[in-house]
Amino acid sequence: MLAGLLLCGCCRQTMAAPAETAAYQCPDHCLSLAAEQATDRIGTVLTARLFTEESVRKLVLAQEMILAAGVDMARCPSTPATP
After folding, report:
1. Nearest of 15, 28, 74, 55 to residue 66 by alpha carbon
2. N or C: which end of the chain has fewer CB within 10 A?
3. Is the dihedral of CA 43, 45, 50, 52 positive or negative?
4. Three-state secondary structure call for residue 3
5. pLDDT digits (tens, 9 = 90+) for 19-32
6. What three-state secondary structure class fits 6?
7. Predicted TM-score (pTM) of this structure
């Protein structure tokens, strides 16, 4: 599921998870990382990149504007509408 997102810190090759294991391994077998650890690490990196201080500030401002306009937040879609 995380294919192409993990690089080995030793050999810099893309790590993969063989179907029979729950661990990601590099092709040279110099590093193995449990799937749960890999998910946590990627989540930490992506969260820090996606939710920067500026983007969170903009989300708060947008929410304040919606609330000030009297819009019921419970009725707002949680995902963008498709065109």
Report:
1. 74
2. C
3. positive
4. coil
5. 667 788 888 888 88
6. coil
7. 0.48
